[in-house]
């Protein structure tokens, strides 16, 4: 038999270990049995409104037990879920809902201000709030998926790129499954394991924790917002054994930790979201904190390269080797790079996306013969350990969020006073990196930094809004007129 | 991307954790890096003799590091391996080699007596001994499989049935992979894990340990023969955390253990091979030994139902619930049984075989719509826990080996003095069960117990040879002339 289908994950888990705690949120525990019943009830309520197998539903929700239940309820019905980043502006959200051809949009009162604006931009999309859904009486019978078909789409997450427009990354049940398998074969699994989720569940970093949750039968502690003091208390007193963080979070956690330490039961600080500064890793090493650097992205359904435990101290700075089901190579001008020679990071494996939703051309550009061209730059040392040098030049990371300069440039350029714009990033103590825009204005027009920043705020999520606007007479371009963002960065350095 | 292929398992493991100990045998340790190099060298030597991708090769070897290396070497070349049970007679072995259409047969000097007889029965099959292979100079280049294709056949294991003739069960790489995944999601995995293999590697119980070995990166201690004193020493002093046993082995281990106990690090006594007597489980419970009853067979590539840790003491006697990727139902006359109602155990999952080698009809009879009809009898309690009542009526277990009465009957009936024979089993302190034959002789002919037993010894593996022959004038048959083995069993009871 081929592995095309598996039993419905949460249902199976509720059958195998009903009384284990599945999720802890807001000082309440939910067992797998309870979670399953809540998901089933919600699924029936959704079905009573006409949500059906094969529908596409966009979801805008906070980190909350209700969101976890909603996701499972939608999986139960066989609905493809578009995971919306709740930091986005109403315009950005509307765009993604329309682009994904969602028939349904589920959100919550908390976002009522955003929802009013989104509502205007949508037509034909049925909008439901969780507070309303709760009041539905539900159907006696809803068609619950007994099995998940691994080739079918589970979730869609938008990510931007060189084009400026975000693209929906397709994540199948199989992608999520294999990602969980790759992780468990590296990190292991014990009955005591408890994964702390302080990263957003609309990101793959958070969502993948909830996939492992039901597949492994492992407890997850979920919080709405990441708070370093709470995190340290959880690790020290509540038995958290694994936590996913990005560099900015790790910084805050260490600062809060001070001279205190963690119990031996804490076994993994999974550090993703871009290359970590060496001093941070050294500090963790000196404090005996088991940091596992990892490399992954939306397209690989979370980790694809992670440092194995035995190398966490000797190969410091490396993201490790590709997880068991996955493969990796470095390419330079179409050939395989030599050891220590930097080039493009190219990956493959059953956790890698089949492509971008309704974007055939961009899919073909990114995925060739089953290999995903990440655009990121790195090298393998002589022992095969990956060192990520830089996320691709058109991307930087601010507070754990990917920021795509092209997307910001495209917004700024729409302002009537602007002729063209170029965006790069500058170091920031708190966020790691923040955007900076270089702007050329039309002749005979006037604008200023304040006006442009306020314009950006209307159209871009806060983490994408430039911290600074620099007016200039032209942008650096190469002979084929391609914007040279590295030159912007250089000139930024020279100005300091 | 679909999960059709994975990186070559041992190679990948040698890349990820080269310096971890892979196997300990005969007081020597072999790391994954060493094991990979040994397998590669052997693969090159085999390739130099012409063994190629797609070939079928029967293997008759003892539990030994060389056998582990040989298996990997054959996987490296993409050769399908027929795993021969080394307790079989030359006739039985010859039959399986021919039936599987093996082009190659690899064995070792240890079996030279058997080999001489097998040699006579084979023509066109190329025979190699490991001692010869060692002397080959090898090729510089052999085509090593970089990837394993999950749908491809990895191994073939013979198992008998009602027909009397053994059938080759096809086990794909995918079957083995998913079996390992089902196990890890139930038992967990830690860096300290060490699985003791005292069961034969030609059985799925032993082979599956070596699949987990490379997939998990987990140490395995291999011994040639199961010895209870050695087992207890290994658990008490050498850090064994998991061991696979059958009832007869557990009996011996407990006897040897006496009033001693196991360290806390020992976390799983995986007990397969048929329903265990309650008193044995109670004794383990009182000694704090973590017994995990499990149900599985060659067709499910090892465990398919195992009791989860939290129920090991409360659901004593149950084999548990189907592992995460698998499903189970009980059928009575084509309908689903009620809770507590006994019926046929029917299973499905990606670890279940696609069928029997070159036996289309028997495959169709056993596997319907992806569900394997095991012929075994059991029931589910109201909470869904499986209780195996009896392996199918045409099968019993002697010292962990499946014994098929039809096969023994077929041999005895070939004796010139025998008109017909019926076989059942009787309880035995050491082996659990041993065969007993009821024989009707032709009129005007003469034979005796000694002669028939000696005849059986020539044609049947020792564990299949009846311990007793009972002569009678007729066999109990139903109206459609089907032999009623249960009646034989009854009359055996009455005779005592």
Automatic annotation (TrEMBL), chains A, B:
Domain AMP-dependent synthetase/ligase: 11-357
EC numbers on record: 6.2.1.26
Keyword terms, alphabetized: ATP-binding, Ligase, Menaquinone biosynthesis, Nucleotide-binding
CDD domains referenced in this protein's UniProt entry, alphabetically: OSB_CoA_lg
Signal peptide: none
PROSITE patterns xrefs: AMP_BINDING
Keyword Cell inner membrane annotated: no
AMP-binding enzyme C-terminal domain span: 407-482
Reaction catalyzed: 2-succinylbenzoate + ATP + CoA = 2-succinylbenzoyl-CoA + AMP + diphosphate
Pathway assigned in UniProt: Quinol/quinone metabolism; menaquinone biosynthesis; Quinol/quinone metabolism; 1,4-dihydroxy-2-naphthoate biosynthesis; 1,4-dihydroxy-2-naphthoate from chorismate: step 5/7
InterPro entries for the chain: AMP-bd_C, AMP-bd_C_sf, AMP-binding_CS, AMP-dep_synth/lig_dom, ANL_N_sf, MenE
Enzyme class, broadest EC rank: ligase
GO biological process: menaquinone biosynthetic process
Keyword RNA-binding found: no
GO function terms (MF aspect): ATP binding; o-succinylbenzoate-CoA ligase activity
Similarity comment text for this entry: Belongs to the ATP-dependent AMP-binding enzyme family. MenE subfamily.
Function: Converts 2-succinylbenzoate (OSB) to 2-succinylbenzoyl-CoA (OSB-CoA).
Name listed for the protein in its UniProt record: 2-succinylbenzoate--CoA ligase
Annotated source species: Peribacillus cavernae
Taxonomic lineage: Bacteria, Bacillati, Bacillota, Bacilli, Bacillales
Name of the coding gene: menE
């Amino acid at each position: 038999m081929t592995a095309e289908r598996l039993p419905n994950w949460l249902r199976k888990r509720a059958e195998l270990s009903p009384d284990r705690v599945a999720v802890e949120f807001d000082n309440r525990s939910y067992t797998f049995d309870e979670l399953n019943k809540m998901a089933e009830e919600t699924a029936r309520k959704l079905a009573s409104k006409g949500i059906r197998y094969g529908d596409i539903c966009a979801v805008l929700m906070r980190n909350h037990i209700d969101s976890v239940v909603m996701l499972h309820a939608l999986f139960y019905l066989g609905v493809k879920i578009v995971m919306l980043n709740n930091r986005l502006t109403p315009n950005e959200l509307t765009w993604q809902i329309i682009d994904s051809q969602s028939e349904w949009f589920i959100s919550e009162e908390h976002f009522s201000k955003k929802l009013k604006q989104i509502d205007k931009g949508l037509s034909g999309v049925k909008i439901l709030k969780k507070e309303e859904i709760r009041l539905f009486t539900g159907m006696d019978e809803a068609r619950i998926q007994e099995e998940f078909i691994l080739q079918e789409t589970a979730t869609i997450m938008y990510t931007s790129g060189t084009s400026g427009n975000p693209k929906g990354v397709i994540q199948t049940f199989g992608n999520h499954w294999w990602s969980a398998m790759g992780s468990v074969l590296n990190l292991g699994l014990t009955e005591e394991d408890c994964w702390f989720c302080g990263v957003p569940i609309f990101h793959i970093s958070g969502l993948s924790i909830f996939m492992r949750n039901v597949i492994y039968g492992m407890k997850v502690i979920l919080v709405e917002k990441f708070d370093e003091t709470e995190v340290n208390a959880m690790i020290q007193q509540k038995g958290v054994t694994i936590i996913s963080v990005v560099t900015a979070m790790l910084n805050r956690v260490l600062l809060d930790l001070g001279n205190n330490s963690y119990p031996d039961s804490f076994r993994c600080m999974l550090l993703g979201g871009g290359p970590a500064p060496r001093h941070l890793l050294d500090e963790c090493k000196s404090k005996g904190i088991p940091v596992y650097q990892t490399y992954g992205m939306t397209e690989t359904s979370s980790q694809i390269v992670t440092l194995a435990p035995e190398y966490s101290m000797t190969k410091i700075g490396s993201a490790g080797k590709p997880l068991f089901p996955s493969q990796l190579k470095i390419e330079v001008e179409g050939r395989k790079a030599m050891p220590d020679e930097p080039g493009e990071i190219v990956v493959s494996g059953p956790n890698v996306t089949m492509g971008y939703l309704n974007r055939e051309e961009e899919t073909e550009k990114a995925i060739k013969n089953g290999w995903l061209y990440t655009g990121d730059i790195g090298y393998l040392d002589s022992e095969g350990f990956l060192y990520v040098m830089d996320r691709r030049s058109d991307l930087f990371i601010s507070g754990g969020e990917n920021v795509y300069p092209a997307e910001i440039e495209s917004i700024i350029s729409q302002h009537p006073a602007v002729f063209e714009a170029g965006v790069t990033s500058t170091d920031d103590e708190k966020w790691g990196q923040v955007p900076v825009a270089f702007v050329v204005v039309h002749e005979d027009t006037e604008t200023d930094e304040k006006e442009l920043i306020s314009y950006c705020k209307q159209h871009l999520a806060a983490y994408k809004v430039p911290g600074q606007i620099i007016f200039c007479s032209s942008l650096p371009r190469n002979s084929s007129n391609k914007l040279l963002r590295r030159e912007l960065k250089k000139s930024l350095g020279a100005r300091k």
